[in-house]
Every structure is written in structure tokens, then in C-alpha cells.
Specification:
alpha+beta; Alpha-Beta Plaits; 6 strands
């Protein structure tokens, strides 16, 4: 079964990070990716640009509406995701607990509606 981890953080928590802090953060995530790959559960990941660079589009009501910024103005923003393939939600939660984002923000776990391969 495929699960997607949506990684949420408060951008204010990242505002004081130095280039060295960012490098250390990349290394922590690299180790996590390596562990997922070694376990044979890794499918995909991406680190998203900051929320201020978002554009939201809607055709609701038949009219094209384009908004600069995210869909919702919230304190925590979506910063990236992981897709893994594991047997069940319990296994997904074990990997979510190991995700570095769980220590500084939140990891939303969503099962794929299309299943796994």
C-alpha cells in the first residue's frame, strides 16, 4: 500500500537557520532517504519551494480564478512530501515517526486511493 507523508512546518521556525543549519538539515533528510531506500519502501520525495512562491488555481463555478500564494493562509505550511510503499498504516506510522519533519512540525499520513503496485 502506498502512503504519502505530507510534511508541515511553521516557516517562522526556519527563519533563523544559517547555511550550515540547512546543510545539516539536508544531511539528516539524506540519511532518512537512505534508510527508506535500504528498507525497500522508498517511492518518491520532493522538497517544495517556500509557500510565498505558490500559485493556487480554481475553476470552481466555471470561472478561472488564480491566487498568488497557498490555498489556505495557515501558520504551518506544506514543505514537502515522501511516498512510501509498506504493508499497512502501522508500518507507515513507524516510518513517519522516523521522519525528521516529525521533530519540528507535523507529518500527515495519507493512504493512496489508487493503492500500491
Amino acid at each position: 500500500m502506498r502512503y504519502t507523508f505530507l510534511l508541515y512546518t511553521d516557516p517562522a521556525d526556519l527563519s533563523d537557520m544559517t547555511p550550515e543549519d540547512w546543510q545539516a538539515e539536508k544531511e539528516v533528510y539524506g540519511a532518512y532517504i537512505g534508510a527508506l531506500q535500504k528498507a525497500g519502501v522508498f517511492v518518491d520525495t520532493d522538497w517544495l519551494q517556500p509557500v510565498h512562491s505558490a500559485t493556487t488555481l480554481s475553476l470552481k463555478g466555471g470561472t478561472r480564478q488564480v491566487q498568488d500564494g497557498p490555498f489556505a493562509d495557515t501558520k504551518e505550511t506544506l514543505g514537502g512530501y515522501f511516498v512510501i510503499d509498506v504493508p499497512d498504516l502501522d508500518a507507515a506510522m513507524v516510518w513517519a515517526q522516523k521522519c525528521p519533519a516529525a521533530k519540528t512540525g507535523k507529518v500527515e499520513i495519507r493512504a493512496s486511493a489508487m493503492g500500491g503496485e
